[in-house]
Design brief:
Blueprint lengths: L1 H23 L2 H9 L19 H4 L12 E4 L1 E3 L2 E4 L4 E5 L4 E5 L5 E4 L12
Length: 123
């Protein structure tokens, strides 16, 4: 009797397993995450880590970070100076919205979907 129940539930289990596996098996995304390398020693994970790296590589719906950002990045003093700048006004414009935010802490701009849900086209 248990064997018959297992056979009946097998197709459902296969669908669920395939759906879960597809989230974690995007080879392009995994390669992008792996290319970032490990964390820098002495810098704890949090809002100060990985300044200058592409935040949304890990902070997207594909993970691996738990927090998803719709807009994130580091604002620098200039194109040739890798010095972050705090309290810079950033203006974001998409097809429906114009939003203004200021960088904070380590010159980071980190926005979740609740804070800014961008739409294409975006500038």
């Amino acid at each position: 009797m248990r064997l018959r129940a297992l056979y009946k539930s097998a197709p459902l289990l296969a669908v669920v397993a395939a759906a879960l596996a597809s989230c974690a098996m995007d080879p392009v995304h995994n390669a992008a995450v792996n290319a970032l390398g490990g964390e820098i020693g002495g810098v704890p994970q949090g809002e100060y880590h990985r300044a200058g790296q592409p935040c949304t590589t890990c902070h997207s719906s594909l993970g691996p970070a738990k927090t998803t950002f719709t807009m994130a990045g580091t604002v620098y003093f200039g194109p040739t100076k890798a010095i972050g700048v705090d309290n810079v006004q950033v203006i974001m414009v998409d097809s429906l919205t114009r939003a203004t935010r200021r960088t904070r802490n380590a010159s980071e701009l980190l926005l979740t979907a609740e804070q800014y849900n961008r739409r294409s086209p975006f500038s």
